[in-house]
C-alpha cells in the first residue's frame, strides 16, 4: 500500500514512485512465499493530491502498465498471480485510480500477461456499475479472485442490502468458478456468529458445515 500515513493507497500507477513500488513488490513476494499464498493484490494507488484525475490519467496509465509488466515478469519466476482490484470512488476512496472492471480489463489487455488477473469485489462493482450478472459473465475469463460484501453497509451477505448473494453464488458455480471467495466485509457483531449466512447457504445446497456432502456421509 505504500506510505499510508502519507495518504498513499498503493504505488503501481503513481508516477515517480516506481523504485518504491518495486521494492514493495519484492517484500510482498517474500511474505507471499512465507505464507504459501500464490496471489498478490497489486494496488494501483491514488491520484496525487492537488491534481485533477483527467489531467494525470494518461501518465498514470503509462506508469501502471510499465509496473504491471515488471510485476508479471517477477511473479512468473515465483509461479504467482498478480491481481488488479477496482475500488469504487463514490464511497470508499474518491481518489483511487482504478475504479471499474472495464478500466481494469482494458489495462490488462494492454499489458497482455496471462499471470495478471482481475480481483472482482462485488461491493465495489455494484456501487460503480451494478449489472453484476452481466459483468460477472463478461469478465469471468479475467477473474483471479472474488471478494464479497453487502451493499451499501459492507456487512455480511445476509445483512439488509441490494445484493442477492445466493443467486450470485449459484451464478459463480454455473460459470465454473473454482477459486476462493474472500469475505471482505465488516462483521456487524461476532465474526463466527456472522458466518451464519455461510452455514445456511451450505444447508440450502445439501452440504454440511465445511462444504462436505451429506450424501457422502
From TrEMBL:
Any GO MF annotation of the entry: hydroxypyruvate isomerase activity
Pfam families recorded: AP_endonuc_2
BP terms from Gene Ontology: glyoxylate metabolic process
The keyword Isomerase is annotated on this UniProt entry: yes
EC numbers for this chain: 5.3.1.22
UniProt domain Xylose isomerase-like TIM barrel: residue ranges: 10-200
Family: Belongs to the hyi family.
Name by which UniProt lists this protein: Putative hydroxypyruvate isomerase
